[in-house]
Design brief:
Length: 225
Amino acid sequence: MRDFFRNYIFHNIGLKLVSLLLAVGLWLAISRDPIAQVAVDVPIEMQNLPDALQVSSEHIPQVQVRLSGPERLIHRLQRSDVHAHINLAQVQPGERSFALTPNDVHFPDGLQVVQIIPSDMRLNFDSKASRQVEIKPRVVGTFASGYEIERIIVVPAALTIEGPRTRVGETDYAVTDPIDVTGATDRMTFSTHAYVSDPLIQVVNTDPVHVTVIMRKNTAAETGP
């Protein structure tokens, strides 16, 4: 028995006592650390959306994740440490609801999710579609006295758009950035870009659009009444 105590209990007794004191001190420090809460606004990460579908909701809400834990961990928390996600692998076209639980939130160890606001969300989905639409030039400015537009040439005359099928079907044309022809009296060519106003519609080809504006004398203005 004496050998047992000497070999296992009293061997390196100094180091063992130091380790014990450190462990007790750490436990006391943690146990005295007050519990705090924090609310973090995070975007929704949409995972596994099928290639043939697109989100047709204009506004995808953020969620507020309320976390609780030791104050020292709360103070260290960064917004980038918290992520909320939903799995879209099984979605079909139409409106779909998703319930958010703590399992849908990634957060640092030592904390816990107290509440998610909102706890459920609705999104609309539509099949992906594309088609070509006409490009309409947007000409602005004050014409030179006695002049008018004879012809406008747009190259290319159309572009391809892509997005949710319903929204693509409702989009009839794209427009260019403003083209200022103030004081023009001849033929002028402008390099510009075209866009569609629907934020869910993407212009597939973003190459410049060349718009040629040809002016002519207004003979009716010259002859008068």
